[in-house]
Amino acid sequence: MRARFPIALLAFTLAAGAYSARAQEAEKIVSQYVKAAGGSKALGKIQTLTLEGTFSYGDGKTGTYTLDTRLPNRYYSELLVDDKNLIEAYNGKSAWHQTASGELGTLVGAEGTQLEAAAQFYNSRLLNPKKIKMTVTLVGPAQVRGKDAVQLEVATATSVKRQVFFDAQTHLIVKESATVGGVEEVILYDDYRTVDGVKLPYKIELRRGSDAYEINVTRALINGTVGERVFDFPKKSQVQLPDLKALFKEIDDNQKAIDKIKENYAGSQSEEQTELEGDGRVKKRERSEYTFFYLNGEEITTLVKKDGKTLSAEEQKKENEKTQKRIEELQKRQAKKEAKEEKAKEEGKSEDSDEPGIEVFLRACQFVNPRRERFRGQDVLVFDFEPNPEFKPHKMEEKVVQKLAGVVWIDEKAHDVARLEAYFTGDMKFAGGLLANLQKGTSFVFEQEYVNDEVWLPTYMEAHVGVRLLLVKGFKVSVVTRYSDYKKFNVETLSTIAKPKGAADVPTDPPAKPR
Fold it and tell me: What is the set of domains in the chain, with CATH numbers?
């Protein structure tokens, strides 16, 4: 065994050295591109970029092409064919598209994340990938149109990947391939010309799925006027926002009723947690499976599997005991809260809640682009939100909320949130950064479905977190949680665990799927 150890160590050292060499080579290729494209100074001055042109399509048809980008993460691409607009856009809060049939909608899930990643890539100019949590990996030599090229893989913090090919002689980008908005795209670039010190392509071949567009750029403009309205939903598709203060109050007031209905349900939950190295490599991945139910508005989970393996009887017993302890803690907290409220009521006072209300969002954020859409078969109100620059935060929860931007889907009839996407627009420091620094770009997604025509219940949660602890330790973690197998409590799902009087039952085995 001892004889093998030096060999294993040598192999590890050689592998680490090879990886380091490949990383350095990737950085070198990016550096060569930046220099060839005009240099970091010229690229760094680009606030907005506009490319306009014409293209041939199909049997001699022609159309027009527009691409607009704006720092830090705005993106708008339009193909006008026979008076039909094919649009993909990201406005810094939400991704949306318009199809050839005129269908207009917000993109969610992978499609929305892909478009957000495209916006990040095109605005970055590859100037400082690490700063925006973008990793660049060397793939190897390649051929593009019969010429030598080098292929790199560019990945965002949300793990969206794009293949980028650089000409071996000019060092400029000659090809890209990625999935954008759910459609496979391949883009080929040619005929680079200098505009304000920056090399820009005047011939673009865009392949989207089975369609191909030969684009001749007729106008290229750096730092022209490109307003925020360019990236927003078309005004004609927007609706009048309701009284948000009243709507949010209805949602807040309805939460107790929602929590009570949720206590009738149990389900299964799977969680995958991935810890990443600073360069994007996977450091550790863990998979866990739970059963769960709700008590006083909170999830009560019981671990049943770890990395695909069912827990032993002894391990399960310990997990059940943890669940029991959690139930008791929640009950004590609830009893204390109710006693406090009762005392305040007797004294003719109103007891202020310790929890920040949803009204914080009304003060700390501003709301734009309201529209009505269908989501999971339900009519919902959708609008974007972003930090309110006029608001001066004082409390911690106000400081957190004011750094958020994103989009929310609300079921006005059921008074609940169907989906929420948000990300931090800047670093969030705790104790001045001494304790922790939640990094800019940290994002999360929360999604629900309407169950049994009575309540919205979680189906999906995703978080991509970058954090630095105690000014030293920095790490990135991605967590994806999926909820399934919802069913109402009955004798088949109840646990045999003893519980305090009035406590909900604890399902220790994964509930069977309803027949």
Answer: 20-235 (2.50.20), 238-345+356-488 (no CATH)
